[in-house]
Specification:
Distance between the termini: 15 Å
Strand content: 15-25%
Number of strands: 11
Radius of gyration: 20 Å
Strand order of the largest sheet: 1-7-4-2-3
Oligomer: single chain
Length: about 425
C-alpha cells in the first residue's frame, strides 16, 4: 500500500470551557487548525498553493454538532475559519464516538489512491453547551435511540454497566475483585492525566479508595454498578492531525523521520446491545467484532501484540477498557484482571494503556477522540509525549469505538522501517 505519514498536529486544552470564554466553534477550529499547521511548518500560502494543484483536502470528524451547537454542513464551515480554505475539498464524517477515526480512514484512502498529497483531519465537539441530562440524551443517539435511548436518563452509562454485568457472567468473575479492577483502571487513567498538560482532569483528585467508594456522596452511581469515577468526561475540544503521501514527505520533510500508519481495522457489530451479547454467546470474546478489527490491524501491519509498545484505548467507561485488554491480545479473554493486577497496563508496565489519561483522564470530546488518540500515537513514536512518553516506543496502537462497541476502529502507528 502507498505509505501514509503523520507529520504532526495539535490538540486544544481539554480543560477549557469555550462557551464560558465567550468563544464559538469558529474560534475553536481556527485555534486548533492553525496550531496544527504551525506544528508541521505549513502556512496559509502553502494551503492555497496545494489547493491550486488540487493536492490537499480536509476531513472533519464530528458526531452531533446539530444538537450541541445547532450547526451542520461542517466541512463547508471551514470557509468561515479562514479564506485560505476557500475551494479546498472538505466534508464531515460521522460514526458516533468513532467519528474521528472514520475521518482518518477517509483521508488515508485518498492518500493511498494518490488523489491528495496532504490531508488535514480535524475532530471536534463542543459539549458544554447543555446540561448533563440533555447531553446524555444527545449521546443516546449513538445507540438505537428508539429502543435504547429515548426517555432513558443517561443511556450509555446504563449500556456499559450492562457490559460490566455481562463480563462477570460470561467469565464467572468474582464481582468484588472485578469492581476493584475497574477502580484500578480509573485510578491509572486519572494518574496518567496528571502528566498531560492538555488533559481535562490533570488537576483533579482521584485515588483507588475514592474510585472504590461507589454509591457515595462523592462518587454516585450513574448506571448499574458504574459510578462517576467509571465514566469519561463531558469535554469541549478539538484535535487535528496532518497526514501526507510518501512523495510529499520526501519533497518537504526529507531530512526528518516521520511515523507512518502501518495498519488499520474497521468492523461494525450489531447496533443493539442485546444482539451483540447474543452474537458473542458462544464466542471467546465478549466483543468479537472489536477483537476482529484489532486482528485485521495486526494482519495489515504484519505485527502482533508483542510488537506494540503503547496503547490508547476507548475508555468511555472502565468496563470498555477492561474488555479491550483481551481484545488487544494482552491477555486471554476472561483473564483481563491479570494485566491490571500485575501492573502490565500501568504507565511503567510493559503494555501501558492510555498514558495520555485516556477518555476518563484526558477527556472525551466525542468527535475529536479518535483524532486525539492518533495524535497521541504520533507523539509517542516521534518522542514528543513529554512527561507521559513511553521510552523507546517503536509501535503504538489505538482502539476507538462508536456506540456500545458498534463501530470499531483500530490503527497501528510506528517508526518507518527502511
Amino acid at each position: 500500500m502507498e505509505k501514509v505519514y503523520i507529520l504532526g498536529g495539535s490538540q486544544t486544552d481539554f480543560q477549557r470551557n469555550w462557551s464560558k470564554e465567550g468563544k464559538n466553534v469558529i474560534a475553536l477550529l481556527r485555534e486548533n487548525i492553525f496550531d496544527a499547521l504551525n506544528d508541521v511548518s505549513l502556512t496559509k500560502e502553502d494551503v492555497i498553493q496545494l489547493n491550486k494543484e488540487n493536492r490537499i483536502a480536509i476531513f472533519v470528524g464530528n458526531f452531533i454538532a446539530e444538537n450541541y451547537i445547532d450547526q451542520g454542513h461542517l466541512g463547508a464551515l471551514l470557509t468561515e475559519v479562514d479564506p485560505c480554505f476557500y475551494g479546498v475539498p472538505s466534508a464531515r464524517y460521522e460514526a458516533a464516538c468513532a467519528s474521528g477515526s472514520v475521518a482518518i480512514d477517509a483521508a488515508c484512502s485518498k492518500i493511498r489512491d494518490r488523489t491528495y498529497d496532504v490531508c488535514l483531519v480535524i475532530g471536534f465537539e463542543l459539549m458544554k453547551t447543555v446540561d448533563s441530562k440533555v447531553g446524555g440524551s444527545f449521546l443516546g443517539k449513538a445507540a438505537y435511540y428508539e429502543k435504547e435511548g429515548r426517555g432513558i436518563d443517561f443511556p450509555f452509562p446504563k449500556l456499559f454497566a450492562r457490559l460490566a454485568d455481562e463480563l462477570i457472567d460470561k467469565y464467572h468473575l468474582d464481582e468484588e475483585r472485578f469492581m476493584k479492577n475497574l477502580s484500578a483502571i480509573s485510578y491509572i487513567n486519572y494518574s496518567n492525566a496528571k502528566r498531560n498538560g492538555l488533559a481535562q482532569t490533570r488537576n483533579w483528585y482521584m485515588d483507588e479508595k475514592q474510585a472504590e467508594l461507589r454509591n457515595s456522596e462523592t462518587n454516585p452511581l450513574i448506571g448499574g454498578k458504574l459510578a462517576l469515577s467509571d465514566c469519561s468526561q463531558v469535554t469541549d475540544g478539538a484535535a487535528t492531525v496532518v497526514l501526507c503521501s510518501e512523495n510529499f514527505k520526501k519533497k518537504k520533510y526529507y531530512h526528518e523521520d516521520k511515523p507512518i500508519i502501518k495498519g488499520f481495522g474497521h468492523r461494525v457489530a450489531p447496533m443493539l446491545f442485546d444482539r451483540k451479547i447474543r452474537d458473542a454467546q458462544n464466542k471467546d470474546y465478549i466483543l468479537p467484532w472489536t477483537r476482529q478489527a484489532i486482528v485485521d490491524a495486526y494482519e495489515r501491519a504484519q505485527l502482533t501484540v508483542d510488537d506494540i509498545d503503547v496503547f490508547e484505548t476507548h475508555d468511555c467507561f472502565t468496563s470498555s477498557e477492561y474488555a479491550a485488554i483481551s481484545c488487544f491480545g494482552i491477555t486471554e479473554p476472561g483473564k483481563e484482571y491479570e494485566a491490571i493486577e500485575n501492573g502490565q497496563i500501568s504507565i511503567d508496565g510493559d503494555k501501558p494503556i492510555n498514558p495520555s489519561g485516556g477518555l476518563i483522564g484526558c477527556g472525551h470530546p466525542v468527535g475529536a477522540s479518535g483524532v486525539r488518540m492518533m495524535l497521541d500515537l504520533y507523539k509517542q513514536i516521534a518522542g514528543k509525549a513529554g512527561e507521559y512518553q513511553i521510552r523507546n516506543a517503536k509501535n503504538s496502537m489505538m482502539l476507538n469505538i462508536g456506540g456500545s462497541a458498534t463501530t470499531n476502529y483500530c490503527y497501528i502507528v510506528g517508526k518507518e522501517e527502511i
